[in-house]
Structure formats: structure tokens, C-alpha cells
Amino acid sequence: MSLGPDEVKKIAHLARLGIREEDIPEYARNLSDILSFVEHLGEADTEAVAPMAHPLHATQRLRDDVVTENNQREKFQQLAPQTQDGLYLVPKVIE
Amino acid sequence: MHTKTLTELSAMLQAGEVSSVALTEHFLDRIEQYDQDLNSFITVTREEALEAARAADERIQAGNAGPLTGVPIAHKDIFCTDGVRTSCGSRMLDNFIAPYDATVVEQFKQAGAVVLGKTNMDEFAMGSSNETSFYGPVKNPWDRDRVPGGSSGGSAASVAARLAPAATGTDTGGSIRQPAALCGITGLKPTYGRVSRWGMIAFASSLDQGGPMAQSAEDCALMLEVMSGFDEKDSTSVNEAVPDYRTQLSQGLQGLKIGLPKEYFSEGLGPEVEAVVRAAIEEYKKLGAEIIEISLPNTHLAVPAYYVVAPAECSSNLSRFDGVRYGYRCDDPKDLQDLYERSRGEGFGEEVKRRIMIGAYALSAGYYDAYYLKAQKVRHLISDDFRKAFEEVDVIMGPTAPSTAFKLGEKADDPVTMYLSDIYTIAVNLAGLPGMSVPAGFSEGMPVGLQIIGNYFEEARLLNVAHQYQQVTDWHRQIPEAFKGQS
């Protein structure tokens, strides 16, 4: 498996990762190496095998739909890069 | 005092031979003296530690102390600690002061343990050498030109250098066991679901598991009793009673069936590591164990399966870092897209970005079946190998890592070669089993670890098997010359 520069750019965009133009060849090489390595999986016969979702085959536990957390908006928003009036600020989305 | 184990320090505290404040100051002084060079801590919490030590001394005086009351420990910087920076080794969280305690942190707090600080680690636990940390690599105390292993490299190095008697770690593909092996300490990765993951920053949620890193199996038992148990806040926590790990330590090993997977002793294993591991197994024969050769035929597929499953889960988990609610934000974003892309591009290091991209690719439209689904099926095959093996044997043994600690920078430019450092540990995470690494000797002055793998929830047996070995050997009591200091 070999990825070209355009595919690397596309994947980076899908993952919302800004990468520098000059780093693209190295990403292409490293990611291609990793994918080629991972392709050994093709050697396994998994025709009759079910995918494993959980090591102990447990199912997701459910709980009653009740409020268990306290509102700590101010404490949490102290960590934010930019807030105003209890809201998180981001650059203008709609012109 | 720093040459004592956690268990010995606990006894000294209970007997009033030393105060928690004196003990805490001793370790804080050692950190100050040695850690500039070793770089095993990201944050040292001196004031908080001394305050906790004073409270512990009062609790001991009042007669309501537990075995960990007043004992200093360190937490891997992946566990959220209320009011303390919790960086996960990343620029992304360099400014993140956790607003709550992880369940594991809370458990140690309740027990009265004193936290010296937060240990260095590979960024978001992605690495096998501690070289991907935003805070720089940790050095191996046995040879400071070498890596300590990763991702819990800071925890391993701090315990090996006796800057902390014990530390917590996390293990997604070997991140407790491999650094424990490379630094000559004892580490245990519990069964998936045994230790709460709440407040432990997520990397690959179906594989991540916290566990103890200490000098001896006895110390690990003491810690695991505190760390284990059901937690409502972790939806994958298992509701299974926590046994008294310490009482089972003393059982004899007569008739114990040890499986040696032939795949763990084949091509790729360094001959000097093999010799040490084989010698340890001879020791077990003397203790009355029976050795049985077994096969785990899908071993060669474990690392490839892991490098689909773990990156896929990481790309999903790390999508929460968006530069909006907490963590790093780039300067002057021109629009929302730019804010996301530059905050993440600048906030994450190279290995993290590589893994996010592999995961995003494996999960993208048209590739899901070929990668993620296939890997999850292979995971089933790997887990079946172990299931069959445990019908025949009680524990499985082999090397923890294929070589001793490698040189800093040696594998940093070659991700796939680096990934193969975890060749013997990764399958255990894919299957969700418990595994340990125990110091078994040295090769050219560098420690070698023996890996012991058990069946689900058989941590007590693992600890027992390791403890019995540590009663007849003293590899776990070795301290690197440069860090012996005055006790």
C-alpha cells in the first residue's frame, strides 16, 4: 500500500490536522510503511470469524436517565481559550 | 529510605519509625537532585505532597491509617488530578489544569497516599521509548544514553532510580510492561475492566488499562488492591469482587503449569534476552513448576491488528481536542476550519498525528471492512489462541521485550521498527488479559524483564507467581549505581 501526497492531504483534512507542505513526503512514506505492515492481516483466514467488540464479550451497561453531575460551568470554562457570557467563543462561522 | 520497597516503607510508617513528612521530603529532595537529568517528572507537586504527608501523619497517629497512608507515590501524567496540570505529555494539554480527579487518583487519595508529582510519558501514551513527549525524552537510569521504554517511561525510570517508591502507569499495547522490563522494575497490566478508566485520558478505549509499577510483586499487590474495583463512571468497568491480593502471595508453586509459546522464542528475540528468560524459567522449575511448550499461532498478526484498532480508536478519541473548550488554541485563526486544523496541527506531535491519520484512513468510507473489521476479526483469533492455551496451562511466560533498552534516537525515525518493540506485549491487550513484567536479570548491564500472562481476573495468581520468584532472586532489589546515594 502506498499513499501519495494528495491522499495524505485528504486524510489530514478528514482528521482536521494542519500539516506543513514540506512534511507531506515524510508522512506519505511513514504512513505507507505502516499500511504495508498492517496488510499482513490479509494473510489471516477470517471467513468464519466474528469481529471482537469487547475482550470479555460484555455488553454495554445501562443506567437510569437521571442527572448525576452537578453544573460546573464556571470551573470548566476557566479552561477555555476564549469565553464570553458563559459561551465558548470561536471565529465567525457565518458571514 | 529510598532503597526500601513500598511494603517496607508502609511498615515503617505504621510502626512510627519514620514520619510521612520526612519520607516525602526525602523523595522530593531526590527528585530535585536527580531529575533535572533524568526528566522522569513533568510536574512535581511539592506543596500538595507535604500537605498530604502532614494529614497522613495525623491519620497514622489517630490510628485509622491503611497500608498506603503516608506512602509517597507518583502518577503518570495521564490521570486527571484536580487542580494540577495534567498534560498527557502533549503540547495540546500543556495548559490543562484538570478540574477533577480520575477514579484511580481518588482511590489513592482515599487510601492516604502522598502524590509526589506527575510522571513523564509518550505523548497521549503513543510510543515505546518516551521520546514522543512534548517535555522531552526520559533517560534510562541504568544508562542515560538509552531509552526507558514507553509509554509509561517516566513512571518506570522514577521507580528504577528510586525517586519514587512506586508509580501508576497505563498499558494499551505494553506501556506498563515494556518500560518496567527496560528499567528493571515490576509492573502489572490488569484484566481489561479491572481498574477504572474514568479520568484516565483515553487513547484506545478497548485496550487502555491502568496498573501499578513498583519494585516488587508484593508492592504491586498492595497498589492493585487500592486501584481495582467497580466504577459506575466507567461503562467498561467490570463488577467483579476484588480479592485480597496479598494473602495469596505466599502460596507455593508446586505443580504450577507454565506455558512457553514457541512463537515468543523465535526469530527477532535477542539471544542475550533469551538466555536470561530461560534462566528465570529454570528457577521456576526448581520451585516445582512444570514447563509445557505451547503455540499461539496468530502471534505474528498481533502488531498489525493493533496498528489498525488502536489508531482507529485514537482518531475518534482525540477528535475532542478542537481548540474550543480546553487545551491548545492556535494564534489568530481566520475561520473555524483554520482554528481546528492549526490548533490540532500545532498542538499534537508527529507520532500522534501519524496515528490519527492512520485511524482516519482505516475508518474512512470504503476502507472500514478491509482494515477495522478485519483487525477486529483477527483480534478474535488472537484471543482464541490464549483461550485454548489456558485450557492447558496456568500461566504463560516469555520475554517482555525482544531486546534491552535501545539508544535514544535509535528508532525514532522508523515507526514500524519502533512498533515491533511491543511484539510480545500487544496480544495481551488485544485479548484483554492481565500481564506482568518482572526483573529477571541483566544483559551487558541492562535489565531484562520476564513476562507472565494470566487468564482473565487472575491477577492474584500472577502476583503470587512473581512473588515466589522474587523470594529466591534479588534482581528486583538492584538499583543503578548512579542513584544509590545515601539511604
Label this structure with key terms.
heterodimer, A: 95 residues, mainly alpha, Histone, subunit A, two-stranded antiparallel ribbon, 3 helices, 32% helix, flat, B: 487 residues, alpha/beta, Amidase signature (AS) enzymes, eight-stranded mixed beta sheet, three-stranded mixed beta sheet, 15 helices, 38% helix
Helical residue percent band of chain A: 25-40%
**Broad shape of chain A:** flat
Order of helices and strands of chain A: HHHEE
- The structure class of chain A reads mainly alpha
CATH topology of one domain in chain B: Amidase signature (AS) enzymes
- Roughly what percent helix of chain B? 25-40%
- The main sheet of chain A orders its strands as 1-2
CATH superfamily of one domain in chain B: Amidase signature (AS) domain
Q: Radius of gyration of chain B from the CA trace?
A: 21 Å
Supply the CATH class of one domain in chain B. Answer: Alpha Beta
Tally the helices of chain A: what do you get? 3
Q: Please state the average pLDDT score of chain B.
A: 97
Share of β-strand residues of chain B: 5-15%
Number of strands of chain B: 11
Summarize the structure.
Chain A has 95 residues and is mainly α.
Structure description:
The complex is a heterodimer of chains A (95) and B (487). Chain A is built from 3 helices and 2 strands, in the order αααββ. Chain A has 95 residues and is mainly α. Chain A has a domain of 38 residues: Orthogonal Bundle (Histone, subunit A), CATH 1.10.20. Chain A has a two-stranded antiparallel ribbon. In chain A, strand 1 and strand 2 form a beta hairpin. The mean pLDDT of chain A is 92. Chain B has 15 helices and 11 strands. The radius of gyration of chain B is 21 Å and the shape is globular. In chain B, helix 2 packs antiparallel against helix 3 and helix 5 runs parallel beside helix 6. The longest helix of chain B has 24 residues. Chain B starts with 5 loop residues before the first helix and ends in a 15-residue tail after the last helix. Chain B has a domain of 277 residues: Amidase signature (AS) domain (Amidase signature (AS) enzymes, Alpha-Beta Complex), CATH 3.90.1300.10. The relative contact order of chain B is 0.14. Helix content of chain B is 38%, strand content 13%. Chain B is of the alpha/beta class and 487 residues long. In chain B, the strands form 2 sheets. In chain B, strands 4-6-5-10-11-9-7-8 form an 8-stranded mixed β-sheet. Classes of the chains: A mainly alpha (95), B alpha/beta (487). Chains A and B meet through helix 1 and helix 2 of A and helix 9, helix 10, helix 11, helix 12 and helix 13 of B.
